[in-house]
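User: Just a sanity check before I run the rest of the batch. Below are the structure tokens for the first item. I only need the designed sequence back.
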């Protein structure tokens, strides 16, 4: 099987964005990681409407790919935090 670097990447500007407030949970089965995402939603059947946690999507990928994504995401977050700290360090309040 060819690695992903050998497979062409095709950009799809019509692919949907999914917003999630949190990852509700994850588990691995048969070498495949499954991550469930949730978002807070208000049920307007009653007033005031109760807030409910609703599953908005699931990400399913091989464990090795999920690990690579987790490492890359953590590295990206650390870079973003470092950039914010640098920007805040240059601010002068008088």
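Assistant: Here's the designed sequence for the first item:
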């Amino acid at each position: 099987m060819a690695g992903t670097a050998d497979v062409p990447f095709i950009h799809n500007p019509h692919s949907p964005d999914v917003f999630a407030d949190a990852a509700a949970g994850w588990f691995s089965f048969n070498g495949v990681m499954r991550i469930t995402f949730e978002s807070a939603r208000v049920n307007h059947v009653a007033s005031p409407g109760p807030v409910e946690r609703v599953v908005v999507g699931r990400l399913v990928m091989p464990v090795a790919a999920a690990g690579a994504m987790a490492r890359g995401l953590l590295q990206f977050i650390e870079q973003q935090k470092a950039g914010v700290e640098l920007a805040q360090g240059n601010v002068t309040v008088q």
